Amino acid sequence: MDSQEALPAEGSAPPQETPAPVRGFREEALYGLRAAVPLAVAVFGFAVSFGIVARAAGMGVLAPVVMSLTTFAGSAQFAAASVLGTGGGVAAAIVAAVLLNSRYLPIGISVAPAMTGGVVKRFLSAQLVVDESWAVGHIGNGRYSRGRLLGAGVLVYAAWVGGTAVGLLGAHYLGDPERFGLDVVSPVLFIALLKGQITSRKALAASILGVAIALALVPFASPGVPLIAATAACLLGLRK
Amino acid sequence: MTGLWLAVLLVGAVSMALKATGPVLLGGEELPAAMQRVVTLMAPTLLAALIATQMFGQGRSLVIDARAVGLVVGAFGVWRKWPTLLVVVLGAAATALTRLVTG
């Protein structure tokens, strides 16, 4: 409505036929926010359990909250909490976090063209790009909508930090999120998103290869490594 | 307890840096054509790999458990084009129910 020129103007010289977001930033952000609601529910559930786990690991109250505010990545935080809880060293916690979050390097590159503005703005916006918001923010053909990324990211961030606080305050009565099947919420939603993204035979081939690489490595590599290795399947794109 | 805070702050810094590298170094610029073709395959490839590892990975082993039941139900719903929220609730319920029954 009022901001129609705001978003499409980002790529000043559109190469190929890029599916530019048709709406303004605000509409895109609202779209992303709405699309992320079910994901946020699941994220909240896991954040609560992170809070409980962190408390049990003797991390106190402030440290887990700071971790959720800065790290904002579920698997890395669980890994760090369990390493620290079992008396592992600082180095081990950091290595686990690096491996588990290594996929954010290629993910960051994939969203880079959509990330406009100054360095500080890009740095801060990038913090909101996690698996869930990244999946929601994809508009096709490897293009991402900044509005959707940030709209979804803000909601997921709020759910993660809020859930951590609730867990730390001792919300044991909520129970284990797995009891409610919350651990299948993201994968099922990812299937719904994946369906719209397999738009070519090459995409299908890369997906199958990626799954094969990831599953083949699970028994042999540290958690996180199978995912970054799976992205090697994207090199199929080098062939025209 | 300084070790704890060192870990918290370093893990946070590392995670923030990993997320920010692409957008800070390449932000707002078009990627080279070959790179863009690689990136185009990332969403389907990484999503598929995430689904697979979240569903069948258990630490360093591969298992088929109650998660698979929810996944099958969810995949069926997606295939039948049911509303997304319904699909998610059914998938989660199927997994929860399987856990309840199999203890």
Automatic annotation (TrEMBL), chain A:
<dbReference type="GO" id="GO:1903785">
    <property type="term" value="P:L-valine transmembrane transport"/>
</dbReference>
<keyword id="KW-0812">Transmembrane</keyword>
<feature type="transmembrane region" description="Helical">
    <location>
        <begin position="78"/>
        <end position="100"/>
    </location>
</feature>
<keyword id="KW-1003">Cell membrane</keyword>
<feature type="transmembrane region" description="Helical">
    <location>
        <begin position="149"/>
        <end position="174"/>
    </location>
</feature>
<keyword id="KW-1133">Transmembrane helix</keyword>
<dbReference type="GO" id="GO:0005886">
    <property type="term" value="C:plasma membrane"/>
</dbReference>
<dbReference type="InterPro" id="IPR011606">
    <property type="entry name" value="Brnchd-chn_aa_trnsp_permease"/>
</dbReference>
<protein>
    <submittedName>
        <fullName>Branched-chain amino acid permease</fullName>
    </submittedName>
</protein>
<keyword id="KW-0813">Transport</keyword>
<feature type="transmembrane region" description="Helical">
    <location>
        <begin position="208"/>
        <end position="238"/>
    </location>
</feature>
<keyword id="KW-0472">Membrane</keyword>
<comment type="similarity">
    <text>Belongs to the AzlC family.</text>
</comment>
<feature type="region of interest" description="Disordered">
    <location>
        <begin position="1"/>
        <end position="21"/>
    </location>
</feature>
<dbReference type="Pfam" id="PF03591">
    <property type="entry name" value="AzlC"/>
</dbReference>
<feature type="transmembrane region" description="Helical">
    <location>
        <begin position="35"/>
        <end position="58"/>
    </location>
</feature>
UniProtKB/TrEMBL annotation, chain B:
<keyword id="KW-1133">Transmembrane helix</keyword>
<dbReference type="InterPro" id="IPR008407">
    <property type="entry name" value="Brnchd-chn_aa_trnsp_AzlD"/>
</dbReference>
<protein>
    <submittedName>
        <fullName>AzlD domain-containing protein</fullName>
    </submittedName>
</protein>
<dbReference type="Pfam" id="PF05437">
    <property type="entry name" value="AzlD"/>
</dbReference>
<keyword id="KW-0472">Membrane</keyword>
<feature type="transmembrane region" description="Helical">
    <location>
        <begin position="85"/>
        <end position="102"/>
    </location>
</feature>
<keyword id="KW-0812">Transmembrane</keyword>
<feature type="transmembrane region" description="Helical">
    <location>
        <begin position="35"/>
        <end position="55"/>
    </location>
</feature>
